[in-house]
Design a protein that fits this description.
Elements: H1 3-32, H2 39-70, E1 79-80, E2 85-90, E3 97-102, E4 109-113, E5 118-123, E6 129-138, E7 146-155, H3 158-161, E8 178-183, E9 197-202, H4 205-210, E10 216-222, E11 229-235, H5 243-262, H6 266-277, H7 282-318, E12 331-339, E13 342-350, E14 354-359, E15 364-367, H8 387-390, H9 394-398, E16 399-404, E17 409-413, H10 415-422, H11 431-443, H12 462-469, E18 481-486
Parallel strand pairs: 1-7
Antiparallel strand pairs: 2-5, 3-6, 4-5, 6-7, 8-9, 9-18, 10-11, 11-12, 12-13, 13-16, 14-15, 14-17, 17-18
């Protein structure tokens, strides 16, 4: 049978079916007693009535499904721009199809419809504000697309609120907004690795927002001749107009003072060895303490006098009413050296922040002092306060000496880091918090796109990594951030 014959047969079959339907309708009309004169008008009425009934029933099915979905009470929680957003909800997918949310993609969100009607809306919102997302879906074939408006709000990314205005170069005691340094110490003659030093300092968001200078400072030194390490960190008081200079003078002065006494000091080194050989000998302890006072405590007092001298100089040259407290700064510094019996560390600390010997292997964290405040809570004590050195217990309060077999890292940090990382002074004495801090330092904060710091030997790029790490986000903590690490 050719194609023409097939088409002819198909047409004939269709005509036969139509004729059969027409005869069936004629028979039904005759049995119902419909007169021939009324057949056409009756059929027109019947078709229109049935069509209207069909449409009404179809619409009612759609309305029932729409009401069912409205009764779900679908709500989307608020979110924050640039932060992961995720919400799950359930829809009767056995009754609806072609589900989509209009307006979601424009906001960086993606709708996923899973098994059993479990739906999820996920992504990182890209814009702040109040929005009305339109949930569209199909119910009954032939009915229009149904719609449910679901409101949602996204708060601005807090970081976007902060401006980064550069410090004006012409201000007195101008200081760059960031600083970082790495000191690589060559391996020993036997090829053994030796600890390196890395430090970074970054102007806080509060200062950047107002275009103010960085008040923190650090200084580092390694003496190749004697193998002494010296680290200093200072946090200039935000309320003191020249504290940025005070912190700089404090760090530079103690480094210079200690360096001059540690390049070649056989008596001091002998006192350390003698004390280590007989720690219960009070005379040997007193002798070592005397040397530490001349190096460490004298370094702090020399820094105090250097700041005092600078304030007097500026007052004499400018007559602008400069006072010593205009240079207010905290100060922490430490000198360290490795001997055959272990590490000797001596330190001084006044003010807030944190200085700690961290040992991951032995799970210990030893604070080298105590963060102190003034008469009232939140009022930090500063190196520039003369009463600091008039305290008869100043040596026992502020100086520390320690001999340890080894350690993972020595940390010196301003409160711009210690406050968000530890929150309370009590936590500063909790090894678990230091371990958490150390892990955060190495891993970074992936959710905030902050990379970690690779504290491996001879990694000179660690200074840039550390500077980048200082940009971690912590609500309410926007002070300058400075940290020095011996590792």
């Amino acid at each position: 049978m050719n194609r023409t014959d097939r088409l002819r047969n198909k047409t004939a079959g269709k005509a036969l079916r139509i004729n059969e339907s027409a005869r069936a309708i004629e028979k039904a009309l005759r049995l119902a007693g419909v007169p021939s004169s009324d057949k056409e008008s009756f059929l027109n009425w019947a078709v229109v009535s049935l069509w209207d009934t069909f449409k009404e029933e179809r619409m009612n099915k759609r309305i029932i499904i729409e009401n069912e979905i409205r009764q779900l009470g679908l709500r989307f929680p608020n979110g924050t721009v640039n932060k992961e957003y995720s919400v799950e909800f359930e829809l009767p997918t056995d009754k609806i199809s072609d589900i989509r949310i209009v307006g979601a993609e424009e906001l960086g969100l993606t709708l996923t419809v899973g098994d059993g009607g479990i739906c999820s809306l996920c992504g990182k919102p890209t814009a702040p504000g109040d929005f009305s997302l339109r949930l569209l879906y199909k119910t009954v074939e032939g009915e229009p697309v149904s719609e449910l408006v679901v409101p949602v709000a996204f708060n601005p990314d807090p970081r976007s609120i902060w401006k980064n205005n550069k410090t004006k170069p012409g201000i007195p005691y101008y200081k760059p907004d960031t600083d970082s340094e790495y000191i690589k110490v060559k391996a020993g003659r036997d090829g053994s690795q030796r600890k390196d030093i890395v430090a970074a300092s970054k102007r806080g968001r509060s200062h950047a927002h107002e275009g103010k200078a960085r008040d923190d400072h650090f200084s580092l030194y390694h003496c190749d001749e004697s193998d002494w390490y010296i680290l200093a960190v200072a946090d200039g008081a935000g309320s003191a107009k020249y504290s940025r200079k005070g912190s700089e003078i404090a760090c530079r002065t103690v480094i210079d003072h200690c360096k001059s006494l540690l390049i070649d000091n056989p008596e001091f080194e002998a006192s350390i060895r003698e004390y280590e050989a007989d720690r219960d000998n009070q005379e040997k302890r007193t002798n070592l303490t005397r040397h530490v006072i001349s190096i460490i405590f004298k370094g702090a007092t020399t820094a105090h006098e250097a700041i005092k001298k600078e304030s007097a100089r500026r007052e004499a040259e400018t007559s602008e009413g400069v006072r010593l407290k205009d240079y207010a700064t905290t100060l922490m510094f430490a000198v360290c050296k490795k001997y055959d019996f272990g590490w000797f560390i001596a330190s001084f600390w006044v003010g807030d922040g944190a200085m700690c010997l961290f040992d991951a292997e032995n799970k210990t964290a030893k604070l080298l002092g105590t963060p102190d405040e003034g008469e009232f809570s939140g009022q930090t004590r500063f190196l520039t306060m003369p009463e600091i050195f008039r305290d008869p217990d100043v040596v026992s309060k502020r100086l520390r000496m320690a001999i340890v077999p080894d350690f993972t890292a020595l940390f010196l940090m301003s409160d711009g880091i210690s406050d968000p990382m530890f929150e309370t002074d009590k936590n500063l004495n909790d090894y678990a918090k230091w371990e958490e801090f150390y892990n955060n330092l190495k891993a970074g904060f992936p959710d905030d796109d902050i990379d970690g710091v690779d504290l491996s030997d001879d990694n000179e790029s660690s200074k840039d990594q550390l500077l980048g790490w200082l940009d971690f986000w912590s609500p309410g903590n926007h002070d300058d951030r400075t940290i020095a690490i011996l590792y």
